[in-house]
Amino acid sequence: MVMERATLKTMQLQMLVAIAEHGTLIAAAEVLNVSQPAVTKCIKELEARLGVQLLERSGAGVHLTRYGETLLRRARAVIAEIVSAERELDEMKSGTERTLSIGVSLLASAIAMPDALRAFRERLPDVRLNVYECLPTQTTDGLRDGSFDLCVAFVADGDVTAEHRVVPISESVQVLAVRRDDQLARETQLARLTCARWLYNHTRDSLPAFWRELCGDRVLSLPSHVNVCTSQRLYAQLAREPGTISVWPERLLQEQIRLGLMQPLETDACPSRLTLGLIYRRDMVLSASFEYFIECIQRTHSGNV
Questions:
Q1: What are the DSSP calls for 30-51, one per residue?
Q2: Smallest Cα–Cα separation from 136: which of 41, 251, 228?
Q3: Whole-model pTM?
Q4: Residues in domain HTH lysR-type (predicted)?
Q5: Average pLDDT of each block of 10 consecutive residues along the chain (305 residues)?
């Protein structure tokens, strides 16, 4: 009886996820290969058990209430964990090692990964690694749907990480820079640079928090022209456009300075920092390979924390 109740609850969560992803009860029923009345009955039973309304119906389909959205986040995590457990059991039965899937933000890949991956491969050469370079927003989506076991990315104050655990690895000072010999290099006051063209290296959602950090105690209007680019190669090219103020992790800027392409912009702006972190779901059950990768990246960056 207990097993039957657990199976029913899992089925109800699967239906909620299918409805959210496909927009209608009919589409969800087709995906799950059940009838629409079965989906409707299952969701009504779930609502009755929880005592809240999860769905709102209209002529255009259905959408989740705030209760439904909250449950959806947990439902996706539960289903992803079940899929992960089944995959791990299959691998155990076939005698193969567990696969570890890692998402790495474009900005963090060159800084964070090479040494850690080398150390990991030396210790656990038989573990299959999937490493994907991705945009900051894709790290969250990949963790949520189970595509990634963990992610390595820079985290800014404006990023939403409530549903994930973030383990800080190191901090990087953010430096303002301009093209070498650009006329903007003569300007030292941040207030006079708000009309310039800016280039930012993280998510647009984190931009206001970054700007407040730069301003410190002052209240200055956000620059009116800010482009966002998370591709390292394209970023370096766009940063060399005349009249552009770009934001760089200090370590990456040093290479551009060495090549004679960029120069730091000395202004009265307050220091800004990005945190390099390991990110994974709060409900994640850590495997041995997962824990050892965390150890590798912490050890290779221990001097920068």
A1: HHHTS-HHHHHHHHHHHHHHHT
A2: 228
A3: 0.58
A4: 8-65
A5: 57 85 84 87 89 82 85 82 69 62 81 84 86 81 84 72 79 90 90 93 84 91 91 88 92 90 93 84 78 86 54
